[in-house]
Amino acid sequence: MGGGGQLTEAGESQAAGVYTWEEVQRHCSRNDQWLVIDRKVYNITQWAQRHPGGFRVISHYAGEDATEAFTAFHPDLKFVQKFLKPLLIGELAASEHSQDRDKNEAIIQDFLSLRLQAEREGLFQAQPLFFCLHLGHILLLEVLAWLIIWLWGTSWTLTFLCSILQAIAQSQAGWLQHDFGHLSVFKKSSWNHMLQKFVIGHVKGASANWWNHRHFQHHAKPNIFSKDPDVNMLHFFVIGATQPVEYGIKKIKYMPYHHQHQYFLLIGPPLLIPVYFHVQIIRTMISRHDWGDLAWSMSFYLRFLCSYIPLYGLLGSVALISFVRFLESHWFVWVTQMNHLPMDIDHEKHRDWLTMQLQATCNIEKSLFNDWFSGHLNFQIEHQ
């Protein structure tokens, strides 16, 4: 019997706890999952359902080496080691390479050396004051937006200006919660989690758990169909070099794809946040019984409506937040997609971490405006 209480197949070398890559790779189904970290073999079949980062992100590495992903996702490696021990079922045979399939071991070692050098130079040490000031300017924008209407009235011009300020605040809050969600601001993970829930929940009206479970998959397998939710276009668009060919061969015609460059502007940026994300967030919180995140989310809408109903009435306030979401959605789409959509988008190729990230990611020119506008995601390669 392997770790995690899962029966192993007869004929494999379980008694000695020594495995080949071929044996490991057979355990990659939803109900049977092994992975390798630092040549140690772990049975994660039962643990995957309890994984704090979500079932899908860890399952994307079933049947393969997850060492680099494990290191990238866990700031405190010593802490998470205690969760690995009960899952350990053996190690790779001495005759096996440390890397599976065609992963480039030389690149992996060079990238490890680069990471260690960056750690020694303190490049991963954040400045909490910067992020506090970032939060301060977001809250200031929200206050200014409300004061403009409260002091000078609800004319179309002032309403439009209020919407612009609110959209800027919402977009910047999105970038800020993203940093907290990556546990990259404070040394204590609990502080990062708390601030993320405040920013994405109370300041934006969304769900931290929904965002994290979705976004972690993107980082684990960027631009990989069926694994990165950011390239799941729900048949509205075809992207990359492979998908259009596959749709053509299979004669899949959900949409007039030869006109997608025209209708993208009608249903892409305008609807992503106001419709798709909004529905997905509500459905996810309710289906997962995530009442904590639901309370955070509702606190935003309660605060917003209490602030603006005396000025615009209920319908006017709903129209205002809908327009803010419309503006924010355009901002979000252009920033997030310019870093990934121009790059390689394909099915799983089992590349090493650095190669996978570089082929799916590009940077945008640095400037003070670009840094602020994109929440520093114009440095997407370094971020990935």
Automatic annotation (TrEMBL):
SMART domains: Cyt-b5
Domain Cytochrome b5 heme-binding span(s) in chain numbering: 16-93
One annotated GO biological process: fatty acid biosynthetic process
Topology within the bilayer: Multi-pass membrane protein
UniProt-annotated location(s): Membrane
Protein name: acyl-CoA (8-3)-desaturase
Principal location listed in the UniProt entry: membrane
Lineage: Eukaryota, Metazoa, Chordata, Craniata, Vertebrata
Keyword terms of this UniProt record: Fatty acid biosynthesis, Fatty acid metabolism, Lipid biosynthesis, Lipid metabolism, Membrane, Oxidoreductase, Transmembrane, Transmembrane helix
GO cellular component, one term: membrane
Domain of life: Eukaryota
